[in-house]
Amino acid sequence: MLDLSDRFVVPPAPAVELRAFTHGLMPRTVPDLMAGFCQDWAERGVDAWNRVPDRWGLGHETGWWALPTDLADAWVAPLLSAPAGSCILQPNVFTTVQALLSCDGPFESRTEVVMTEGEFPSVRHPVQRWQGLRDLRPVDVPARPDGRVDLDAVADAITDQTAWVFVSHVGFATGEVLPTADLRRLADVAHRHGALFAVDGYHATASIPVDVEACGADMYFGGLLKEACGSSGNAYLYVRPGLDLRPRLSGWFGDADPFGFEPAPADHPEVRRRFLGGTTAVASMYHAVEGVRVLLDAGLDAVRADTLAKGARALDRADALGIPVRSPREDERRGAMIVLEVEHADRMVRWLKTRDVFVDARRGALVRFAPFVWNPAQDVDRLFDALGEALASGAHLALAPAAEGGPVT
Ligand SMILES: Cc1ncc(COP(=O)(O)O)c(C=O)c1O
Q: Is residue 404 one of the residues assigned to a domain?
C-alpha cells in the first residue's frame, strides 16, 4: 500500500481524514507556491501576464496568460492520456457545461440531451435550464434499482435526435466506476447516431488512469479540487482534436484577437481556448497541479492499486459488522470512494467527528469515505472500530441530526 503522507499536510493524529472526494489535502509545497504568486505579482506586476519563472516544472518560462494551456498540456493531458493541445484549465465544471451547451453545431438538427439520473448538478441543472434558451429536450435515464448506471437504458435513450450524451466516469453518489469498455460502448452508440459523447471525470481525475481516446470521449471534463488535491478554481476540459465546437459563451480571453479589442467576437483557432471566458483567476493556478505532480510521481497505476487494496479492507470490515455496502464491490467498478448504508448517517458522521474520524453523509442514509494515498491502512480500522462502537451502543443517536457549523460534512 502507498503512504504519501509526507507529501501532504496531514491533520495531526489522532485525526483521520477520509474525504478526498470532497476536497483533497494540501500538498506540502503549496505555501511556497503561493508565496511565489505574491513574489511574481510584487516584482513583475502587469508583466507577469507575459512572463513568470517556471514554478510548475514545465521546463520553460510561462506567463499568466498562457497558464491555462501550459499547465493543462504538462499536467492534465498525462492524467487523461490526451494529446498536447487538447486540454485547458477551466474555473469549474458548471462553466464548462454552460459553454458546451452554448455550441450551436451539435444542436443544428437535433434537440435531445441524454443524461443519467446520477449526473452531478453542475451537469444536470444547466441542461434543464437551457431548455428555455434553445430547442433542447433533456432525456433523463433513471438508475437501476441498486443505484448503478443502467447502461442498456442509456444506450436505448440515444436516437438520431440526440445532440449530446452525458455520463460520469465515477458516480459522485455511488462511487461506481464505468470501465473504459462501458464508456466506449456508449460512445460508439452515440457516434452511430451522430451524437457527441461527454464524460464527467471529476472523481476519476488523478485516482484512476484515464485514456480519453479509448473511452471515445468527444469532451471529458473534471476538476482538480478533490482527489487531485489542487483546491478550488481549478477544473479542466479535454476536447477531442478535430472537433470544431464554437461556444457562444466564449469570452475575450478565448477570442482570436483579444488585444485587437474588436467590436465583434472571433473564434480562436484553437478550439480549447474558445472555452475561456473573462480574465482567468491566476492565484488558483499556482496550486492547481501540485497534487497531480505528487500522484503522477507515484504513478496512477500505483494510486489505483492502493485505493483498491484499502477499499478491500474496508469492505471486509463492513461485512464483518453487517453494514450494507452501496458502492460496487468488483475491483473494475469500484473507485476510491466507498458508500455504506447507515441509518441516521448524519448523526453517525457527527459522532465520528467526535472520535476525530472525518467522513461524510448523504441524504441521511449513506456514509461516504475514501481511504486515499495519505491514509495508512490503520485509518480504515479506526473508522470501522468507531462505527462498530456506535452501532452497538447507539451513542450517535443521542446527537441532533442537523450538522453543526456549516452545510459541508
Ligand atoms: C461528478 C462531479 N462533477 C462536478 C462536480 C463539481 O462541479 P463544479 O466544478 O461545477 O463545482 C462535482 C463535485 O462534487 C462532482 O462530484
A: no
205 lines ligand 1 (CB under 6 A): no
Are the beta carbons of 350 and 386 closer than 8 angstroms?
no
**Which residue among 260, 286, 312 closes a domain?**
286
Residue labelled with grid coordinates 470532497: 22
Residue 225 CA, closest ligand 1 atom number: 9
What is the 225 CA–ligand 1 centroid distance (Å)?
9
Strands (E), 76-213: 87-90, 112-116, 137-141, 162-168, 196-200
Average pLDDT, the chain: 96
Which ligand 1 atom sits closest to the C-alpha of 91?
Answer: 9
**Prediction pTM value:** 0.96
CA distance 145 to 154: 15
- Residue-wise pLDDT tens digits, 120-131: 999 999 999 999
**Spacing, Cα 93 to ligand 1 middle (Å):** 6
Average pLDDT, stretch 90-102? 98
- Give the CATH number of the domain where residue 37 resides: 3.40.640.10
CA 110 to ligand 1 center in whole angstroms: 27
Domain boundary among 261, 286, 311: 286
Q: Which among 35, 66, 63 is positioned nearest to 47, based on CA atoms?
A: 63
With a 6 Å cutoff on the Cβ, whether 171 touches ligand 1 is: no
Q: Decide if 144 is inside a domain.
A: yes
Give residue 364's pLDDT: 85
CB distance 236 to ligand 1 below 6 Å: no
The answer to whether residues 9 and 128 belong to one domain is: no
